[in-house]
C-alpha cells in the first residue's frame, strides 16, 4: 500500500513513505530607480539597449559604484526576517562567459553576504505554523537578455536589464511539499512588497524562484537534488515541483539514481527537462571584486533604516486580532498585503460600522469584484470611505444586506456613493409595519395552495412565501419583519 | 628648439607668453615626426587635435583663464581612455577602439591645459617589462635602439627620454612606470593607490593598477600629479582626501644640507649579489650624494619582499583573467571573421585578439582562481601580500624613505628575455612590493653605465608620502645633473 509523509497525492510512491525536501532560491529585483552599479534607469520595457550605460555594457576602463539604495533595501529585508545584517560584507566576481553578461563576470556576494540567517513564517497545510529558515540573502546584479527570435540565425542582446539590483534570498532545505514551497513563496512575495523593496511583478521577472528538490525515504540522509528553473508563477511552481517529485520517486523506485542537474520547467508540457548536468557545471572562479571595497554597514545606518520600517505583517496580524476582534483567518487575509491592510483600516476609521463587517465585505464582495476585474485593491473603484458609507446604511437599517450588494455593484460601476444610489433607485428598505402587513396579506391571498402545503406540514413552503413577499417588495422589505409577520399570520 | 626645456620651464614660458602653445605644438609634432618612427614610441598621433588644443590654450592664456599647464604638450599611455581618440592597449583586440570618454587623469591634465599630442606604445594590456609584447611592435630605447626601454609604459618613457614630449602618463601595476623610467633615464612616479583615479584606465590588475606621471624631473612629476590626483566618485577605490600641492615642499629655498635629518632605509634585500655591479656602484654614489645633503642611512629588513614576484604573478594574472573577460567580441573590439557557434566565436576572437603574453597570464590567472586551487594560490598570495605590507610598516618606524636600485640591471637587448618569462619577471623584483602595498615610489636617473645606458634609483615612501619622496628626489636633482643627460639621437633635428 502506497504511503506518503504528506497529504499531497503527487508524492505517493510504493514502499516506505517518501519525504520531499525543497529549498528555494528567490531573486527579488530591488525597486531602486537606478542600477546597482551605474546611474542608468531600471524601468521595465524600454527599447533595447536604451537603458544601458558605459558601465552596463562594460566598456573598457569603467568601474562599478555601489547604489546605496540597494543596500538600504537589503537592510530592510534583513530586519524584516530577523536576520543578521552584516557589518561588513564582500562583493565577489562570478566569472563565466555569456553574451548577455557584458563583463564576463557577474558582481555578486559569495563568502560574506549582506544578510545572514533569519526566517519567514508560513502556515503549512500539513504541519501548521512553521518558520522557514533563511540561509542568506545577498546583493547582486542581473544580466541582460539574449533574444533569439527575429535575427535570422543570429542572437540579439538587450542590456537594459544588465546591472539591475537583485536580492537573492536562499532558504534552508526546510520545505516538505509543493504546498509549503508555494506558501513560502507567497509569504516572501508579500513581505518584499510589504517592506517596499520589490514590486513583486512576476510577469516582468521582478520576483523569480528556483527550487532545489530532492526525495528520500523517511529517516534517510538527503537525496540528490535537482534545481528547477523558470518558475515564474506560483501555479507553475506547484506543478513543476509536483512533476519533479513524481519523476524522482519513479526513477528511484525503478532502480535508477537521481543525477544532480539543473532542469527547466516547461509549462506547456507540464514537465521539467534537463538543462545541464553537474559535469557541465562551470567553475565560476569566485574572488573578491577588487573594484569594490568591502560593504560596511554601521549600526547607525541600520537604526535609521529600522526607524523608517513599516509595521510588519506578523505584528499587524496580531494587532488586527486584538484591536479589531477579528478571527485569525480574517486577520491573516487582511494583512496579506500592505494595501489590503490599509484599505481595511481606512474603512474602519471612516466609522459607523463594525470591523468584522468590513472584514466580511472585503473578503467577500470586494475580493470577488477585484478578481473579476483583475486589478489590485489600490485600484479598486470603491474607496474605503465609500465602502464604509455603504456598510453604515446596512447597520442603520436603511437597506438590507442583499440590496447592499446591488448598491455595491452600482458603486463599483461608478454610479456614485451609496446614499445617492439608494435615493436614485429607491432602494430604501421598507420597515413600516403596516405596509409590510399589507404586502404579506396580498401574498397569502394570491398563494392559497402554498399556504395549504405549509399547513399540511411542509416547512419549506414558509420560505417560499417569504421569497414571494420579498419579491413583491422588490427586495426592499425588511426581511426580519416579513418573517415575523408571516409567522404570526400563519401560526395564528 | 624647446625640446630640452623641462615641463615646468615650458609652462612658465607659455604663461609669460614668451612662447605660444601653437608654436610649441608644431615644434613637438615635427620632432615626433622626425624621431618618433625609429623609436616606435607612439601608436596614434593627433596633430590636428593637438593644434586645436594649442590654439585653445593660447586663447586661455591670453584671457587669463588658463590652467597651470596650459599649452604643455604631453602624451598618454594607450591604456588610458581619450574621448574620440583611439585607445588600443597595444592590442589587436582594441585596434580600432574609440572611447566616448576621458579617463579621470586624462580629464585632469586636459583641465590643467595640457595639449595631448598622441597615445604611446605599450606592452599589450600593460603586461610586460620590455615593451616587446605590443601588437604595434617593440619600442626602442632612445639611449641605444638595440635595447628595450622597459615596460609596460615603454612608449611614454621613450617619448620623454627622447625629449619628444616633456611629460607623459603611464600606469604602474608591477613597476610599469618606474622600471621603464629607470631603463630610459627619466623620472617616473607611482603614487599611492587611490590618489589618482583608475576611471578610464583599462584594467589589468585592479588592486594594483596605478596611473602616474613620467617627466624629466621630480618637479615636473609633481606638477603633473597635481593635475592627475583627486577624488573621483566614479572609482570606488579612489580616496577622498584634501587636495594636496605636491610641489609645495619643492619650492622651499635650497640650503647646503636640505635633507638634514632624513633617514634613508636601506633594505639588505635590495643590495644582494644579483645586482649588476655598475648599478650597485651608481646607487652607492647616489647614496653618498644624499649623505652630503644631510641624510643618514639605516639598515632595515624586508624579509617578505623576496616573495613579491611570485605573489604578484598570482594576484595580477588572477585579476587580469577576470578583467579581460569583457573582450569577447560581442559588443566592441576585435571579432573573428568566421566562426561556427558562440563558443567558437569566443575562442577564435580571443585567440586572434590577444598576444602570447596576455594569453599566458589569462591561463595562469584562470588556474589560480580555479576550484581547489584558490586557497593554495590566490588566498595564500593575499596573505603574503599582507606580510609584505607588515614588513614595510615596521621599516617606517626606523626610516623616512627607502632607497635602492629600481631594477637590478640596466636595459637589456631587444629579444634577450622574450623566451624566458621568469627572467623577464625578475626585472620587477624591486618595484612590485610598492604595488602590493599600495605605497608610493619614484624612480630617478642616478647614473649611466660605461655602455651609456641609464641607471635608476628608486625612492619609496609610506602611504601618501608623495610630497616627501618628490622633494627628496628634487633635492638630489638640484645637486646633480643625471636628469639633464639626454640620449644622443642619430637624426637630431
Can you walk through the features of this model?
The complex is a heterodimer of chains A (about 500) and B (about 500). Chain A is α+β, with helices and mostly antiparallel strands and about 500 residues long. Chain A has 15 helices and 17 strands. Chain A has helices at about 70-80, 180-195, 235-255, 300-305, 315-325, 330-335, 340-350, 355-375, 385-395, 400-410, 420-425, 435-445, 450-455, 460-470, 480-490, and strands at about 20-30, 85, 90, 90-95, 105-110, 115, 120-125, 130-140, 145, 155-160, 165-170, 205-215, 225-230, 260-265, 270-275, 285-290, 295. In chain A, strands 1, 2, 6, 7, 8, 11, 12, 13, 14 and 15 form a 10-stranded mixed β-sheet that branches. Chain A has a 3-stranded antiparallel β-sheet with strand order 5-4-16, with no helix packed on it. In chain A, a hairpin with a 4-residue loop joins β14 (about 260-265) and β15 (about 270-275). The model of chain A is unreliable at about 1-5 (pLDDT under 50). By secondary structure, chain B is α/β, with parallel strands linked by helices. Chain B contains 15 helices and 11 strands. Chain B has helices spanning about 5-15, 20-40, 45-65, 105-110, 155-160, 180-185, 220-230, 275-290, 310-325, 340-355, 355-370, 375-395, 420-425, 430-435, 465-480, and strands at about 40-45, 75, 115-120, 165-170, 185-190, 210-215, 265, 295-300, 400-405, 440-450, 455-460. Chain B has an 11-stranded mixed β-sheet with strand order 1-3-2-4-6-5-10-11-9-7-8, sandwiched between helices. In chain B, β7 (about 265), α8 and β8 (about 295-300) form a beta-alpha-beta unit.
State the gist of this model.
Chain A is α+β, with helices and mostly antiparallel strands and 492 residues long. Chain A has helices at residues 68-80, 178-194, 234-253, 299-307, 313-324, 328-334, 338-350, 355-373, 384-395, 401-412, 418-425, 433-446, 448-455, 460-472, 479-491, and strands at residues 18-29, 84-85, 88-89, 91-95, 105-109, 115-116, 119-124, 128-141, 145-147, 156-158, 165-171, 207-217, 226-231, 261-266, 271-277, 287-288, 295-296. In chain A, a hairpin with a 3-residue loop joins strand 7 (119-124) and strand 8 (128-141).
Amino acid at each position: 500500500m502506497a504511503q506518503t509523509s504528506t497529504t499531497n497525492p503527487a508524492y505517493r510512491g510504493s514502499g516506505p513513505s517518501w519525504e520531499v525536501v525543497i529549498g528555494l532560491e528567490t531573486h527579488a529585483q530591488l525597486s531602486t530607480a537606478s542600477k546597482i552599479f551605474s546611474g542608468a534607469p531600471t524601468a521595465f520595457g524600454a527599447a533595447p539597449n536604451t537603458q544601458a550605460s558605459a558601465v552596463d555594457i562594460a566598456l573598457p576602463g569603467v568601474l562599478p559604484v555601489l547604489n546605496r539604495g540597494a543596500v538600504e533595501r537589503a537592510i530592510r529585508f534583513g530586519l524584516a526576517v530577523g536576520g543578521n545584517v552584516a557589518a561588513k560584507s564582500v562583493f565577489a566576481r562570478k566569472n563565466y562567459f555569456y553574451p548577455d553578461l557584458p563583463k564576463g563576470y557577474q558582481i555578486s556576494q559569495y563568502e560574506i553576504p549582506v544578510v545572514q540567517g533569519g526566517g519567514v513564517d508560513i502556515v503549512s497545510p500539513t504541519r501548521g505554523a512553521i518558520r522557514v529558515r533563511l540561509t542568506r540573502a545577498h546583493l547582486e546584479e542581473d544580466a541582460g537578455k539574449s533574444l533569439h527570435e527575429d535575427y535570422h540565425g543570429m542572437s540579439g542582446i538587450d542590456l537594459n536589464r544588465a546591472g539591475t539590483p537583485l536580492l537573492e534570498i536562499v532558504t534552508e532545505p526546510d520545505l516538505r511539499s509543493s504546498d509549503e514551497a508555494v506558501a513560502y513563496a507567497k509569504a516572501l512575495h508579500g513581505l518584499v512588497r510589504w517592506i517596499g523593496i520589490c514590486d513583486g511583478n512576476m510577469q516582468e521577472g521582478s520576483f523569480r524562484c528556483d527550487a532545489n528538490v530532492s526525495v528520500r525515504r523517511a529517516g534517510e540522509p538527503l537525496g540528490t537534488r535537482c534545481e528547477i528553473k523558470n518558475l515564474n508563477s506560483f501555479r507553475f511552481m506547484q506543478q513543476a515541483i509536483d512533476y519533479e517529485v513524481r519523476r524522482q520517486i519513479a526513477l528511484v523506485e525503478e532502480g535508477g539514481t537521481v543525477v544532480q542537474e539543473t532542469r527547466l520547467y516547461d509549462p506547456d508540457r507540464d514537465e521539467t527537462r534537463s538543462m545541464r548536468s553537474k559535469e557541465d557545471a562551470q567553475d565560476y572562479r569566485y574572488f573578491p571584486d577588487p573594484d569594490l571595497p568591502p560593504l560596511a554597514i554601521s549600526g547607525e545606518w541600520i537604526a535609521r533604516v529600522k526607524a523608517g520600517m513599516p509595521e510588519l505583517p506578523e505584528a499587524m496580524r496580531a494587532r488586527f486580532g486584538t484591536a479589531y476582534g477579528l478571527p485569525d483567518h480574517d486577520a491573516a487575509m487582511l494583512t496579506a498585503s500592505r494595501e489590503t491592510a490599509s484599505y481595511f483600516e481606512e474603512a474602519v476609521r471612516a466609522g459607523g460600522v463594525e470591523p468584522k463587517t468590513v472584514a466580511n465585505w472585503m473578503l467577500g464582495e470586494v475580493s470577488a469584484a477585484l478578481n473579476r476585474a483583475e486589478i489590485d485593491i489600490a485600484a479598486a473603484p470603491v474607496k474605503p470611505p465609500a465602502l464604509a458609507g455603504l456598510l453604515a446604511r446596512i447597520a442603520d437599517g436603511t437597506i438590507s444586506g442583499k440590496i447592499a450588494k446591488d448598491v455595491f455593484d452600482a458603486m463599483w460601476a461608478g454610479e456614485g456613493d451609496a446614499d445617492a444610489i439608494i435615493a436614485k433607485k429607491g432602494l430604501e428598505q421598507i420597515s413600516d409595519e403596516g405596509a409590510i402587513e399589507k404586502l404579506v396579506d396580498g401574498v397569502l391571498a394570491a398563494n392559497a395552495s402554498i399556504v395549504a402545503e405549509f399547513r399540511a406540514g411542509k416547512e419549506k413552503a414558509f420560505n417560499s412565501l417569504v421569497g414571494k413577499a420579498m419579491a413583491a417588495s422588490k427586495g426592499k422589505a425588511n426581511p426580519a419583519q416579513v418573517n415575523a409577520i408571516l409567522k404570526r399570520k400563519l401560526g395564528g | 628648439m624647446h625640446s630640452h626645456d623641462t615641463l615646468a620651464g615650458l609652462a612658465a614660458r607659455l604663461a609669460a607668453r614668451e612662447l605660444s602653445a601653437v608654436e610649441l605644438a608644431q615644434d613637438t609634432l615635427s620632432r615626433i615626426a622626425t624621431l618618433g618612427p625609429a623609436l616606435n614610441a607612439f601608436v596614434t598621433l593627433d596633430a590636428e587635435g593637438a593644434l586645436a588644443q594649442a590654439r585653445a590654450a593660447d586663447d586661455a592664456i591670453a584671457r587669463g583663464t588658463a590652467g597651470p599647464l596650459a599649452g604643455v604638450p604631453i602624451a598618454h599611455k594607450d591604456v588610458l581612455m581619450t574621448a574620440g581618440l583611439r585607445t588600443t592597449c597595444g592590442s589587436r583586440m582594441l585596434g580600432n577602439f574609440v572611447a566616448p570618454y576621458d579617463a579621470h587623469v586624462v580629464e585632469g591634465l586636459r583641465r590643467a591645459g595640457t595639449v595631448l599630442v598622441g597615445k604611446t606604445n605599450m606592452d599589450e594590456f600593460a603586461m610586460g617589462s620590455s615593451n616587446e609584447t605590443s601588437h604595434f611592435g617593440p619600442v626602442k630605447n632612445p639611449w641605444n635602439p638595440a635595447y628595450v626601454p622597459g615596460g609596460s609604459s615603454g612608449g611614454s618613457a621613450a617619448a620623454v627620454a627622447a625629449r619628444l614630449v616633456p611629460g607623459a602618463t603611464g600606469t604602474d601595476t608591477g613597476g610599469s612606470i618606474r622600471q621603464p623610467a629607470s631603463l630610459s633615464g627619466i623620472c617616473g612616479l607611482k603614487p599611492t593607490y587611490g590618489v589618482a583615479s583608475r576611471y578610464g584606465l583599462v584594467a589589468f590588475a585592479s588592486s594594483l593598477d596605478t596611473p602616474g606621471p613620467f617627466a624629466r624631473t621630480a618637479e615636473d612629476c609633481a606638477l603633473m600629479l597635481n593635475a592627475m590626483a583627486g577624488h573621483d566618485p566614479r572609482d570606488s577605490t579612489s580616496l577622498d582626501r584634501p587636495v594636496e600641492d605636491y610641489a609645495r615642499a619643492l619650492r622651499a629655498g635650497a640650503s647646503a644640507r636640505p635633507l638634514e635629518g632624513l633617514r634613508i632605509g636601506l633594505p639588505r634585500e635590495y643590495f644582494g649579489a644579483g645586482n649588476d655591479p655598475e648599478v650597485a656602484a651608481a646607487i652607492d654614489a647616489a647614496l653618498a650624494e644624499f649623505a652630503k645633503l644631510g641624510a643618514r642611512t639605516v639598515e632595515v629588513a624586508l624579509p617578505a619582499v623576496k616573495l613579491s614576484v611570485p605573489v604578484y604573478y598570482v594576484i595580477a594574472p588572477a585579476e587580469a583573467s577576470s578583467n579581460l573577460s569583457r573582450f569577447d567580441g560581442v559588443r566592441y573590439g576585435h571579432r573573428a571573421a568566421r566562426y561556427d557557434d558562440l563558443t567558437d566565436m569566443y575562442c577564435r576572437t580571443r585567440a586572434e585578439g590577444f598576444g602570447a603574453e596576455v594569453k599566458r597570464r589569462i591561463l595562469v590567472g584562470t588556474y589560480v582562481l580555479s576550484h581547489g586551487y584558490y586557497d593554495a594560490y590566490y588566498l595564500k598570495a593575499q596573505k603574503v601580500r599582507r606580510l609584505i605590507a607588515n614588513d614595510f610598516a615596521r621599516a617606517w618606524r626606523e626610516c623616512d624613505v627607502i632607497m635602492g636600485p629600481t631594477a637590478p640591471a640596466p636595459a637589456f637587448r631587444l629579444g634577450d628575455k622574450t623566451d624566458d618569462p621568469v627572467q623577464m619577471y625578475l626585472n620587477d623584483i624591486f618595484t612590485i612590493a610598492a604595488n602590493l602595498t599600495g605605497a608610493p615610489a619614484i624612480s630617478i636617473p642616478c647614473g649611466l653605465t660605461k655602455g651609456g645606458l641609464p641607471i635608476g634609483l628608486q625612492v619609496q615612501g609610506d602611504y601618501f608620502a608623495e610630497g616627501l619622496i618628490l622633494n627628496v628626489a628634487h633635492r638630489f636633482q638640484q645637486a646633480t645633473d643625471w636628469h639633464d643627460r639626454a640620449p644622443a639621437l642619430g637624426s637630431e633635428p
